[in-house]
Design goal:
alpha+beta; 4-stranded antiparallel beta sheet; 30% helix
C-alpha cells in the first residue's frame, strides 16, 4: 500500500479480487521460479482478468484541484482509479467482446498487439489486483483527499461551524 497515504479499500464488496480469482486457488509463485508445466497449468486457471477492464495512464495528481478529474471519473459506474508506483490510471470495468465464457480469447490468433505484448507474470493473476492505491467511488476519493490534504479540510470544518451569538448581541432579547 502507499506508505505515505494509506487508504483502505472502502467498498470491499466491489473488490475485483472477488470475481477475478477462484478463492480456493493459492497465489502462484512468480513464473521465473516455475517449471514450464506449472506455467501452463497456471494460465489455464486464470479467469482472464486483464480482459475484463481497460486502464489508461493519467497525469499524476499533485494538487487538490487535480483531483477534481479523479472525483469525476469515480462518480461514474464501472470506472475507478488506481496507482502503481508513481503511475496513476483510470480504469473502466468493461470486458472484451471477444472474451469467451471459458475465459479464453475468441480471436487469439488475431488479437490486438496490446494483448500480444501482455507478459505472463506481469498479469493480474499474479498481482491479484493489489495496487498501491485503489479509488472506486466518490466517497473513497474524498476520504483519500481528507487524509492527503488535512489542512484544507480542517479549514472547511471551522468555516462550517455555526457562530455563537454573544449575549445582548443581534437576535438576543432586548438587544435591539
Amino acid at each position: 500500500m502507499d506508505s505515505t497515504f494509506p487508504v483502505p479499500r472502502l467498498r470491499p464488496e466491489t473488490s475485483r479480487t472477488d470475481t477475478m480469482f477462484d478463492p480456493k486457488d493459492p497465489i502462484p509463485q512468480h513464473p521465473e521460479r516455475m517449471a514450464p508445466g506449472q506455467i501452463l497449468a497456471t494460465c489455464q486457471r486464470c479467469r482472464a482478468t486483464c480482459c475484463t477492464y481497460m486502464a489508461l495512464e493519467i497525469d499524476a495528481p499533485t494538487t487538490l484541484g487535480d483531483f477534481e478529474n479523479i472525483r469525476w471519473y469515480c462518480a461514474h459506474k464501472n470506472t475507478w482509479v488506481f496507482k502503481e508506483g508513481a503511475s496513476w490510471f483510470v480504469a473502466f470495468d468493461t470486458p472484451c467482446e471477444k472474451l469467451q465464457a471459458d475465459f479464453t480469447c475468441g480471436i487469439y490468433d488475431q488479437r490486438p498487439q496490446v494483448c500480444r505484448d501482455h507478459k505472463f507474470g506481469e498479469c493480474d493473476y499474479f498481482l491479484r489486483g493489489d495496487f498501491d492505491l485503489e479509488l472506486r467511488s466518490l466517497e473513497a476519493v474524498d476520504a483519500y483527499l481528507r487524509q492527503r490534504f488535512p489542512s484544507h479540510f480542517r479549514h472547511e470544518k471551522r468555516a462550517a461551524r455555526p457562530r455563537r451569538r454573544a449575549p445582548g448581541g443581534e437576535g438576543a432579547a432586548g438587544g435591539e
